[in-house]
TrEMBL record:
Keyword Calcium included in the entry's annotation: no
PROSITE patterns the UniProt entry points to: NHR (PS51065)
Native source species: Anabarilius grahami
Protein name, as recorded: E3 ubiquitin-protein ligase NEURL1
Gene3D superfamilies attached to this UniProt entry: 2.60.120.920
Length: 208
């Protein structure tokens, strides 16, 4: 996934990658709350004052969001689907980026995480099944130390999602409030337990 970045930010610079070094990641505060990035978001996104809840105000796209800080290995990004709009098809897309969202302009963001962001360097994402994105559903997704991404629904067994995400540099979560999914709330983060490491996980492959 990913190709050369060709879109240009408002200041005229072409984005080529992430400026931080991998050694900076461990210096993050241990319990910095996980929120949505306040400034870099799709044109149809509105955010509450806590930066924990977002919703799409119109259309079915232009609703890409990012987390406010990098995600640690095995840290679960936990979401509650708070609004659903039944007149669309497709649902939430999630993934990771090695590009600091603070280095992106909202005007640069494409309408869709999949496939638009995936055609750029440093972005990995995939669509969740519609039937797993009902209003009230709690979803968690995370990255393990081999670059594999897993998710779970309402505390279910982990499901293998996709692979290939670099683990040697900071990664931010991508959450695209797409299609049937209209509103999402970030819940308190959790770490994935050791039994869900690659050697012990009961993997369920998502259909392509």
């Amino acid at each position: 996934m990913g190709g050369q970045v060709t879109r240009t930010a408002l200041d005229g610079r072409t984005l080529h990658g992430h400026p931080l070094k991998a050694s900076m990641c461990p210096k993050l505060p241990a319990f910095l709350p996980l929120c949505f990035h306040a400034n870099t978001k799709g044109s149809q996104i509105v955010m509450d004052k806590t930066q924990r809840s977002v919703r799409r105000i119109a259309s079915f796209c232009n609703a890409i969001t990012f987390t406010n800080r990098p995600i640690r290995i095995n840290e679960q990004v936990r979401l509650k689907i708070t609004m659903k709009q039944g007149c669309w098809s497709g649902a939430l897309r999630v993934g990771f980026s090695t590009v600091d969202p603070s280095d992106l302009s909202s005007a640069w963001l494409p309408p869709f995480a999949c496939p638009d962001l995936l055609n750029e360097t440093g972005f990995w994402a995939r669509a969740l099944p519609e039937e797993q994105c009902e209003e009230g559903t709690i979803l968690s997704f995370w990255l393990n130390n081999t670059g594999r991404v897993f998710y779970r629904v309402n505390g279910s067994s982990p499901i293998f999602f996709f692979s290939g995400v670099p683990t040697g540099e900071p990664v931010w979560a991508i959450i695209d409030i797409y299609g049937l999914t209209r509103g999402v709330q970030l819940l308190d983060q959790m770490m994935c337990h050791a039994e869900f490491a690659p050697s012990g996980i009961a993997e369920l492959q998502v259909g392509v």
